[in-house]
Fold these 2 entries.
Entry 1:
Amino acid sequence: MSTTQKSLPKSLLVQGYEVVIGFETHAQLSTQSKIFSRAPTAFGAEPNTQACPVDLALPGSLPVMNVGAVERAIRLGLALGSHIAERSVFARKNYFYPDLPKGYQISQFEIPVVQGGEVSFFLGDEKKTVRLVRAHLEEDAGKSLHEDFVGMSGIDLNRAGTPLLEIVTEPDMRSSAVAVAYAKELHKIVTWIGICDGNMQEGSFRCDANVSVRKPGEPLGTRREIKNLNSFKFMQQAMDYEIRWQIEQLEDGKAIEQATILFNPDTGETRAMRTKEDAADYRYFPDPDLPPLVIGRDWVEQVRSEMPELPRVMAARFETQYSLSEYDAAALTSSVAMGAYFEVATKASGQPKLVSNWLAGEVARRLNEEDIGIDRCPVPPEALGQMIELIHAGEINNKTAKEQLFPHLWGIGKQVIAGNGSLTFHTASGAIKTIAVSLNIIQTNDSSALEKIVTDVIAANPKNVDEFKAGNAKALNALVGQIMKASGGKANPAQVNELLKAKLN
Ligand code: ADP
Ligand code: MG
């Protein structure tokens, strides 16, 4: 099956089947050192230069809890409205693998540190909520390196002991599109609260998608778990392929066997890695080397007082403070940078709704075109704000702003970013108006000059005039367009309409 296959529909049934998806996400916590040792967590070092005796599982070495990892777990719990356990327990998950020299991974099993909570987001203009089961602290394993050129495999234990928070959802999602939107929202939250750098290429945020299908009303189907999806695009492709595959199996009268599978981005297919083991296979038991993790309420309150304003709190504030819709407020809080940009531009213009429209429209379009985020927008928020103020005051019209002033500001900003000498972007009060004046696009409210243009355009376009008189309202737009053009975009469209109608009637 090709990877360019069209995505499955956003919800509803697929060939009469309901899709059920639950996610397990491993967020690598942004601590300097490992979860149970002092070795550094930095990515990309020479193999085995960042593994200390604890990470190497040397006999006699003992794990010591990293306070920073616990604090980050508390932050996530506070951000998602979860219960933060006063007492949670570390457990050994036993299995053999060359990259796990201890023979067990330290994780949390029966009593995780973060319990419950939820993630809400928009898919299009539909609001979705996904419930969380839990989030638990655990250590990462090392990595096998297959050195084909020397015909050997090596083990790099730099990653061993890197702190992870595994965030587990209920099987609440009913389409691959909802699941991807959930993953994007979770990614936004963990980066927003500063607990994870979110770098997906480096594996700092990887998702396992549990997928099953069933006929509506039937009990949950058997799931297969697609491991280690570290790009939103692959996530969608992998789930869509898997959903189709499972439906095909069932339609052929075959049963789905629970399994752990891998997605191959080159072929766009999923394939079984191993049949799924049960929790019992891991012989979980409390780790005798680590005492229970105790989190006092005063610590939770301390962390709460240091949290940034959360996306949903900021969104609620935008709704009331700026009279915006829930949908607009959600879009404007898609990142810390977006929220900040919006507020600065609004302060400069006093026009929150117009700023919101520009950010969702022309600004988003240009950013997409150049594949950059709002944090790298060439037009500073003060400049956009001043431009919007000019539009609102009727000094320039919206169309001219879009076609001339905004692209001009964009161009200046790009030169500034490219570091052309000492060029800076001036955004002192009145700076953008000065630019608009120099571009000669300030609207004229000189009606005698405009009247002459209107008379000329009417005389030059008898066909449009006749059509308008015959009842074709669209013919008026053609005349307005001509007049705007003849005025160099400086005419006030409302005034043009008025004059034109007065002359034609
Ligand atoms: P394990 O820890 O053994 O992987 P869990 O029962 O904790 O198993 O579930 C792991 C993930 O699988 C959770 O996100 C859960 O929501 C999801 N899940 C469970 N049952 C199903 C199912 N039938 N279809 C899809 N997802 C499921
Ligand atoms: Mg699992």
Note: Residues 20-24, 168-171, 210-212, 220-221, 223, 279 surround adenosine-5'-diphosphate (ligand 1) (CB under 6 Å).
Entry 2:
Amino acid sequence: MTLIVTKFGGTSVRDADRIRNAARVVAEEVEQGHQVVVVVSAMAGETNRLTELAATVTTVDDADARREKDALLSTGEQVSAALFALALRAHGVRARSLNGRQMVLRTDGRFGNARIRSIDDALVRGHLDDGQVVVVTGFQGIDDQGDVVTLGRGGSDTSAVAMAAALAADTCIIYTDVDGIYTADPRICTAARRLERIAAEEMLELAAEGAKVLQHRSVELAMKHGVHLVVKRSFGEPGGTTIVPNLSDLEALKVTAVVSDGGQAQVGILGVENRADMLAVLLAPLARDDISIDLITHSVGMDGRATLNFSLDSARLPESLSSIESAAQSLGAQRIQVLDEACKISVVGIGMRTRAGVAQRVFSLLSEHNIPIHLGISTEIKVSCLVPADCEHDAVRILHEGFGLHHMVAAAAANAATTA
Ligand code: ADP
Ligand code: ASP
Ligand code: MG
């Protein structure tokens, strides 16, 4: 008997009709003789609604407030889980819903961004063995104090993969509002094509660089535990993308996909004293406030003074700016430049390991189209750069076309077919 973990995102449980449809999908899986665990998100828009509701009551963001916000946000998934179990029962399928506390999904205590430590699979297995479908809430668990914590936005993907790993499920299917992983966000780039397969490493980079179709940690967990992961839109239809451990050299494209992440800010600190501890001093206030920096460059000018540029989440800029400024002044900075509306554009592909010239091509394509590049970085399988936020969509389309992604997918499929 096959065990399937099936996750439904917010769009798939948006209203009663969608829940009934999704329940029918599960009923068909059960009819085919599978054991099924369903992981649900909150109904589309609900997590945002609850976040805004909290903001109307308070602007305080200390640990106590974060605890209460997590208690609030976790209710969205509880509503969908119970409704889903009811809808399954209406289809004649025996089902039982469990929330994060009931299934004992243990996490660390980081409110709003917790990491899963363990799942007590005994209860879920017990219900499965009893012939029931188990519907569990995504996005939440409990910490050592017994407080409800959430896993960060998009966290239901991670709940699903963690559940699949804990139960050693045969497959984990993520149902969402697109029929797979595309060469770019199809909402931004209409020429984007669906990928039949994508290497886990590439998916990890795409998720990390802003493709919210899968939460980054879900891909990490799938890689770590060898979970068979599929992203698709609907049951029974062809389509979907399988995340595979590896691709053959012939299948591996130099660039597989383009991804963008708005909401970035860039800070430039110019003309500081070039001391050995310069970076440590300048970045200390950010580390203290738990603010991650992303791209970073550092150079020393002819005059012997240093310049540091880095990017960070623009939402964290206001709280960090004054401490960055005082650290910069303590090292005699001549100027501080802030670009608060930037976007990170990345191209990803494991084929670039063996083929050179991708970074040069990215920079030349963008500059040919007069898109200013503020920061750039190239790693083994990715090239990223920061551009002004209002260039986001143009930059994605230019790079998608410039790397011939609409043709290349077809070419890779043909390669795979001839080498099979
Ligand atoms: P869910 O509510 O099902 O979790 P999300 O909104 O979190 O769905 O993720 C799905 C969205 O991810 C799609 O609607 C799409 O706009 C976006 N997305 C970004 N990059 C990609 C990509 N490369 N391939 C597919 N979808 C993408
Ligand atoms: N409901 C949560 C969110 O909107 C978790 C999820 O849907 O994955 O981020
Ligand atoms: Mg999501």
Note: The radius of gyration is 23 Å.
